[in-house]
Design a protein that fits this description.
alpha+beta; Rossmann fold; two-stranded antiparallel sheet; two-stranded parallel ribbon; 8 helices; 25% helix; 9% strand
Length: 270
């Protein structure tokens, strides 16, 4: 996602985007937005371009609303990220965490498939859950991929917030046996209920991130991934479980998109 942000190097994709849109008479700007700043319980950064066909209007991006913290894992474009300055942090809402997102989900086992199931708790357990339930009476797409025997064995050793470093050496995958302790910080991670989730990918494979459920021995379900992306429960995903994970992981988090949309509406009203 960020490899094309070698800005202001010559010949970059960013320059091409600017050049083409400016030829058409658009004013363009871009920023890297952090989903956690908009109430999404996830370590997700996205590069956002806004262009408007009016040279006299100043393009604005949504300011952070939540005091969420993340360490950027990319270089060359950090100056494009919006930051929460200490002076303004007390006026922001506390970050939404993993447990705010999924604590009302019913317990399921590894590999279980549920197209429609009742909530694990009758009432929402957080304001975030209240927003995303949005009048829904059932949980849809609460299905997860099955873990093999070796991963279930590895999972026994991983505490909340832990990762591959907690797995005994003889149980590690071959690649991680050769890894430095400072590498691959999120692989085979069990989610910290009080923290943020890894970037939700097109498959919640523990080899690529922190996708083990905080309290159950399984990966997060499609619905839990959708909750962490901020999809409302009324939004249903179709196709195979693999395809459903892909639909969730490829999306821009709706709560972040909503804040971007409000800024665009303000620009259009000008």
């Amino acid at each position: 996602m960020f490899q094309f942000l070698s800005y202001p190097a010559k010949g970059t994709v960013v320059e091409q985007i600017y050049n083409e849109l400016e030829k058409l008479g658009y004013k363009v700007d871009h920023r890297i937005l952090f989903a956690g700043h908009y109430g999404v319980p996830q370590m997700r950064f996205r590069t956002i371009f806004i262009a408007i066909h009016a040279s006299n209007i100043e393009i604005e991006f949504p300011e952070p609303l939540y005091d969420a913290k993340a360490v950027t894992n990319f270089t060359g474009a950090k100056e494009l990220c919006l930051e929460v300055l200490p002076l303004f942090a007390p006026s922001l809402k506390s970050q939404t965490n993993v447990w705010d997102a999924i604590s009302d989900m019913p317990e399921i086992t590894s590999g279980e498939k549920n197209e429609k199931i009742k909530y694990g708790s009758l009432n929402p357990q957080s304001e975030y859950q209240k927003i995303l339930r949005n009048g829904s009476d059932y949980v849809y797409n609460h299905s997860c991929n099955n873990l093999g025997k070796i991963n279930l064995e590895r999972l026994k050793y991983i505490p909340q917030g832990g990762s591959w470093r907690d797995i005994p050496f003889d149980l590690l995958p071959a690649g991680l046996k050769r890894a430095k302790r400072s590498d691959h910080t999120k692989r085979y991670g069990r989610l910290d209920p009080n923290g943020l989730c890894s970037t939700v990918l097109t498959k919640c494979d523990p080899h690529w991130g922190s996708f083990f459920h905080p309290t159950q021995d399984r990966v997060i379900s499609v619905r839990e991934a959708a909750r962490i992306q901020s999809f409302p429960d009324s939004y249903h995903f179709t196709g195979s479980v693999t395809q459903q994970y892909e639909q969730v992981g490829n999306a821009v988090p709706p709560l972040m998109a909503y804040e971007i949309g409000k800024k665009i509406m303000n620009l259009l009203n000008q």
